[in-house]
Amino acid sequence: MVFFYQFLLGLICSAFVAGSAFILQWLSLSGALAAALSGTIIIALGPWFSIFLVGFFFASSGIINHLKKKNSADDLVIKGARREAIQVLANLSPSLLALIGYASFNNENYLWAFIVGIASCTADTWGSEIGILSKKAPRNLLTGKKLPAGLSGGVSLLGTIASFAGSGGIVLLLAICLWLSGQPLSLTALIWVLLLGFSGSIIDSLLGATIQVRYQCTVCHQFTEQKSHHQQPTKKVHGYALITNEAVNFLSNLAIVGIACFFPN
């Protein structure tokens, strides 16, 4: 019966938050539904502070996306202002799997893996959304060659700092929540969350530079993640067609959550 009430509370709270995000144009309708489902699972299965971590991820992402200036990279990448369901699930599903594992086996390693997954999502989103504003062109993580701003696989100093800050934001909020609930604070565990969350964004950039699909416009010869540019079909020049930005997000989060599962709590 307790689980039923937790589930019901999760559904009501998540529906309200997701609906608000939809009204604020942070989420599409499908994105809002996916967020509501994810939030319901998190509140039903996770500790009380779990939803605040996920809420921080969504709220900070929406605010940053709203405040950032219009950039010429907008027509080169497939990242709309509103998050779709596939984007929400690509980011959250590995963390949700870890949380289900925590609820099923009562193993705190899975709880820490869930937290690391949220830190990784936040780090990657902050790095992408803020890094695109860098006045210096990002460089390919492996080759060092310059890339158009916003294209996956590129890193910049501003984006790297933003990624670290995003992971740090989750760690700070986690520390506050643990302190408020009277739970012991493990500095070692917090540092691991910080570093692993940041590492998730690095893995994302690494996959973006190696296996993510990339196209080239036949008109302006600009690299892009879109299948059409200047109303003309683009040519695939790199990576695998199925490995889109969402696939890279999922794989990088899955990898870092999987790694975190094996770290001692």
Molecular structure report:
The protein is mainly alpha-helical and 265 residues long. The chain is 63% helix and 6% strand. The protein has a three-stranded antiparallel sheet with strand order 4-3-7, with no helix packed on it. It has a two-stranded antiparallel sheet with strand order 1-2. A two-stranded antiparallel ribbon has the order 5-6. The mean pLDDT is 88.
Comma- or semicolon-separated keywords:
mainly alpha; three-stranded antiparallel β-sheet; two-stranded antiparallel ribbon; 8 helices; 6% strand; transmembrane; membrane
Summarize the structure.
With 265 residues, the protein is mainly alpha-helical.
Characterize the largest beta sheet: strand count, sense, and whether it forms a barrel: 3 strands, antiparallel
**What's the tally of helices?**
8
Average pLDDT confidence is 88
The span between the termini is 30 Å
SSE pattern? HHHHHEEHHEEEEEH
Q: What helical percentage do the residues reach? A: 55-70%
Q: Name the poorly predicted regions.
A: none
Overall structural class, as computed from helix and strand content, comes to: mainly alpha
| Principal-axis shape | globular
Q: Widest sheet: strand order?
A: 4-3-7
The value of Rg in angstroms is 18 Å
Number of strands: 7
What would you call the quaternary organization? single chain
The fraction of residues in strands falls at 5-15%
How is this fold's topology laid out?
Layout: H1 2-23, H2 29-45, H3 50-67, H4 85-105, H5 108-131, E1 139-140, E2 154-155, H6 157-180, H7 187-210, E3 214-216, E4 223-224, E5 228-229, E6 232-233, E7 235-238, H8 245-260
Antiparallel strand pairs: 1-2, 3-4, 3-7, 5-6
Helix pairs in contact: 1-2, 2-4, 3-5, 4-5, 4-8, 5-6, 5-7, 5-8, 6-7, 7-8
